[in-house]
DNA sequence: GCCTGCCAGGAAAGCGCTTACCTAAGGGGA
DNA sequence: TCCCCTTAGGTAAGCGCTTTCCTGGCAGGC
């Protein structure tokens, strides 16, 4: 039960703790080879593992990086997280992943927690909340964290602390809408994400703009809000279909929901895209494996994660940076002109 | 840049650090309300956030839990991780997720790192390595960690430290094989995972046993090893098909590979299951969304994660426990008798 | 009115490290 | 030969907390 400490190692090797510390951290200070070996032997014999908390405290340096995501098991975040991790690992950083499960309070609590642990940076991924009070509190906490020497990077959010990676959600929404209108669709249903998320709002804005550009109008009866997952898409598609008999196309604000919608369409015996077109968003891996493969708006998720981490980890003290990431239309087989 | 410390708060409130500490941790020791308010006000004014490293050091308690997975962005681990996280959160624990990317050295390094951070527990998920040297080193490190008061839980591995959740991989393999033979298939190709992983070996053993039980034999020409992902399955299916013209069924050792195989089969114009049957493993979410929906062997991934975390977090000092998790056959539309 | 007992609050000793500073010994130059 | 400089290694002062133990003041009992 008892853990070997630096002092134990020093005692065993017959040297001072300073020497042991220097050897372990191979500090530039030269140490006689004989001593070094004695110490290393003692370390091995005692199975000594330094106490990282004590090290952090004494050194006052920041090593780990905290990442707050809505839910790692969601493929969207899984992709981003992979990019995040890759770059962090390249920099030799440990990543602490925290799932907020889209709960603003939990998100706030995690920021405090990462702050308390004096992580080098916190990366906040995924949609923010439209509620201004929450945003303000979060902003405040982030600034505080920065003020104490931590770095902040946000992905696809409207908070204005630290670096930011901003995917072109609005333009992406426009791309999806434009593609559909261009094909000749006029009655389009939209499966939106949760109404209180900025990502939902941004993508929807793009869709509205596309409608307007084509001389159409997206009314509330053509929009259904749902959870950003398969089940949400499934349920919303059913509602949309019941409410709008003439629907010839559905735009889902992410691919998971599109997959859910696709399942419902199949259940209803509707041919995609012959009878109804479907377009997703994000270009998640699954979109090529469903039948038909999904047309979608591609966001380079892994790259977004990687860039965010690069920003968060850069050493130069330059000002906060904002990088935009372009969305691209990916046409596959789920869209076609209405018949 | 300067962080407020306990001492700053104490000074500002005109009390000792002891009092502040007691108030902040609301220790049982009673404190006059007036003082408490003064201190809380000072905390708010200074935006004080306790230094978690110092707290850990002083308290010598263990709070966070470390989780080592192969890759969180892999749906298999994403599911498990979700269960892990859920339970950890219920216990108010912070989870540190580490991706080993199937590199034994990295895995070893992470165990050290979590040990160094004095996490309350480390949970090791996913297949272990067949190489005995690696296993022994890992075993040693885990035991060491336990000896210093940490808990260990492993999921689906053969290391023998701490608690263990063992999914019935072998029986699952048998179920898949048995189902196929029972349908009348005799020439079955197997898409296996990486050869050095125990999970691959275990599932394969079950398949061999099923073959044997039905009076057949699985030869090396019917087995192709690949990466546990979609691309691996795609490539392996091609090889298998070329090598065995008479193949009437393919068993993939996980669903991701099965999805890859399905894509290849479609490319080759082979109807599933009319011309060739396909069965997966794990029952990942995607398996219901491909066409045809995949027959597979279900492992309750989220539950496995949850149970592992429960074991790792239990307070009673009981002996290490081993819990087995049953695999179940899920027949969907990708399997049928050979024609 | 004095002594005892209780209680709120403070002083200080760590927790396990790192590191600035100091010491002692050895080597080289004059 | 003597002195000074270099250098390997040690001493000890923190890092920011927690917690044990102690103190001083007050109320109550005799």
TrEMBL record, chains A, B:
PROSITE patterns reported in the protein's UniProt record: HTH_LACI_1 (PS00356), HTH_LACI_2 (PS50932)
Tree of life domain: Bacteria
Keyword terms: DNA-binding, Transcription, Transcription regulation
Pfam families membership: LacI, Peripla_BP_3
Ranges for domain HTH lacI-type: 4-59
InterPro entries in the cross-refs: HTH_LacI (IPR000843), LacI/GalR-like_sensor (IPR046335), Lambda_DNA-bd_dom_sf (IPR010982), Peripla_BP_I (IPR028082)
Name of the protein in its database record: LacI family transcriptional regulator
Lineage: Bacteria, Bacillati, Actinomycetota, Actinomycetes, Micromonosporales
Name of the gene encoding the protein in the UniProt record: lacI_3
């Amino acid at each position: 039960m008892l853990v070997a400490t630096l002092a134990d190692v020093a005692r065993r090797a017959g040297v001072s703790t300073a020497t042991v510390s220097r050897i372990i951290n191979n500090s530039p200070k030269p140490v006689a080879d004989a001593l070094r070996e004695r110490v290393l032997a003692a370390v091995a014999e005692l199975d000594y593992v330094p106490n990282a908390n004590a090290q952090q405290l004494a050194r006052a340096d920041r090593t780990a990086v905290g990442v707050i995501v809505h839910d790692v098991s969601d493929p969207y975040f899984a992709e981003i997280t992979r990019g995040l991790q890759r770059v962090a690992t390249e920099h030799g950083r440990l990543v602490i992943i925290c799932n907020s499960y889209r709960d603003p309070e939990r998100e706030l609590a995690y920021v405090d927690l990462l702050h308390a642990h004096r992580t080098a940076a916190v990366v906040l991924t995924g949609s923010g909340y439209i509620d201004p009070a929450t945003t303000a509190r979060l902003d405040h906490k982030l600034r505080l964290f920065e003020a104490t020497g931590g770095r902040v990077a946000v992905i696809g959010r409207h908070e204005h602390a630290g670096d930011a990676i901003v995917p072109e959600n609005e333009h992406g929404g426009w791309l999806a809408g434009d593609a559909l209108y261009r094909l000749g669709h006029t009655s389009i249903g939209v499966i939106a994400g949760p109404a209180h998320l900025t990502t939902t709002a941004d993508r929807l804005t793009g869709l509205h703009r596309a409608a307007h550009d084509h001389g159409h109008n997206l009314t509330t009866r053509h929009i259904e809000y749902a959870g950003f997952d398969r089940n949400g898409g499934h349920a919303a598609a059913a509602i949309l279909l019941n409410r709008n008999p003439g629907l010839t196309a559905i735009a889902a604000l992410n691919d998971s929901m599109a997959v859910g919608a696709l399942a419902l369409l199949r259940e209803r015996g509707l041919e995609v895209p012959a009878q109804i077109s479907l377009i997703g968003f994000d270009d998640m891996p699954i979109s090529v494996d469903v039948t038909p493969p999904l047309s979608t708006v591609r966001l380079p998720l892994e790259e977004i994660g990687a860039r965010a981490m690069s920003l968060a980890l850069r050493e130069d003290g330059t000002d906060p940076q904002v990088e935009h990431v372009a969305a691209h239309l990916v046409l596959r087989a789920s869209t076609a002109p209405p018949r």
